[in-house]
Design a protein that fits this description.
- α8 links the parallel β5 and β6.
- The protein has 2 domains: 12-50 and 276-367, Aspartate Aminotransferase, domain 1; 61-274, Type I PLP-dependent aspartate aminotransferase-like (Major domain) (Aspartate Aminotransferase, domain 2), CATH 3.40.640.10.
- It is globular and about 55 Å long.
- The protein has 13 helices and 13 strands.
- A 7-stranded mixed beta sheet has the order 2-8-7-6-5-3-4, sandwiched between helices.
- The protein is of the alpha/beta class.
Length: 368
Amino acid sequence: MDVKVLRPRPRKAVAALKPVVHGGTNLAQWGEMGLEAARVLDFSANINPFGPPPGVYRALQETPIDLLPDPEGWPVVRLLARRLGLPAEYIILGNGSAELMQLMALAYIEEGDRVLIFGPAFGEYRRISRMMGAEVAQWAAREADLFQPRPEEMVRMLERVRPKVVFLCHPNNPTGTAYPMDWLARQLERFPETLFVVDEAYQPFTLGQATSALNLRAPNLLVLRTLTKDHALAGLRIGYAVADPELLRPLRVVRPPWNVNVLAQAAAVAALQDQAHVQRTLTQLRQVTREFRQALLDLGFFVLPSVAHFFLVKVGDAAGLRDFLLRHYRVQVRDCTSFGLPAYIRVATLKPEENAVLLEGLRAWLRQ
């Protein structure tokens, strides 16, 4: 006899959600294949492959963990404020920029609000919007245009949707394309009641090829940055948002207490105090990226242009190639099926000797 089990029900918006597919370690699948994380070359995570400044490791060893963290992270905030030339109240820290997106959603998105995403883009934008019960619309760049933005079409979408919130990734993940900031400046003026969330997780990797939205000043602009990518603090989770203090005030209200731990704050201070290391490694990464991209082209692959250190590569069967590389070469690439691009993988540049392993795996894939 079947017995009906009664249990509490989640909100309808949450019950309909599914986890988002991300790059980075997939320990469950690796475990099924008998692989250890330390033995897998991960081209899917878009992190500075040359690692954090050496001082980060010393800071972690010297940081006591039996004290509560600074709830505002003032040492980190002051360093960021000095670096950006902004008052400290324009900055708020988060447990990675992903948490700051959620804080924005909790603070600003209500059930029935309209959210517009310029894509294909990071899946968390849709998830957190749907989590709040929003209606989500998307303008998608096209393969025929090499996934470059079409500003006129984007404006028409803004006019039609009239969204409460807009998500724009600059440069975009996964395509590596940049958006024109003069265009964004005009839209900030035209739609003053729309909150424009500009995710600049990868802007430092462009070394100036993509102008930052931080150069714009608008009361409806929220710029997201992270120290997990260019400063290679991915495992510690620390990011920051920059906006008008009044725009940030609701985020401070909904933020969990002590959301950035003491180790993340100590590592951030050490990393920010050694910008020479970050700039040196990003400059080196730019050269290695050029060589890596050319090697992929020489193999005959269609490689999309990108202002970042990652790019889309058209391979036909992304899921099949990802499985082949993981099984035979212990290499992980990003299958872009979750972005709606099942023929593409996304790869981020690693060190030259590591890139060589992926290139050999691709040669074997082509031979078969």
